């Protein structure tokens, strides 16, 4: 068996409702995500998506594409740019080293701006 | 179990003790949480007892991170993350224990960078580990 060349993509249309739902899931109601008035006065100028919501979209995409033969083992990312609430997030990963099962992981906006970038390493399913 | 790290006033950069374990928090990967993640991501909801999506484990890690250190100043920024998943995924319905330790902190250009290590266990079995890199707001 060989690792898939691409994992995903998987898209999510973010909104105040998804920010509040993800806040409920993680107990993270940081006003930078969930309070548009507070966020408007922050350096970002508007509410931004929870970073791990996009990251989890990439992990979800990877898990769906890798199962059942493989599984996600390691992830290392930077939340490089904010993703404004209201934007569509698209997440996935591209194989960069078939020998080690290493992928370039990304989350991007419709204009191609990458908001999360890093690596994901897969392994045979435990 | 150690429990969360609770203070009367919000945790500040100066409060973080580098090298020390700060908190332990339990969390259940409930079917309700699995359904909520499925509703956000468009995934199918796994049945109770089925392997939990790894995204649900990450969401659980974030909830324990929020609960572990309270209160916190508004406006903290999550800047980076490392994750390692260990062994088979815990089942939906399983309870995990998350342990947090301050691994590093550094002030750079007026920003307060904090690295927290997290280890999650199902019983004594490691399930997830990693580091949360944050820019602390105060």
From TrEMBL, chain A:
Residues 15-98 form the MaoC-like domain. GO terms for biological process: fatty acid biosynthetic process. It holds the Pfam family MaoC_dehydratas. One of its GO terms (molecular function) is (3R)-hydroxyacyl-[acyl-carrier-protein] dehydratase activity. This is MaoC like domain-containing protein.
TrEMBL record, chain B:
It comes from the Bacteria. This is MaoC like domain-containing protein. It comes from Albimonas donghaensis.
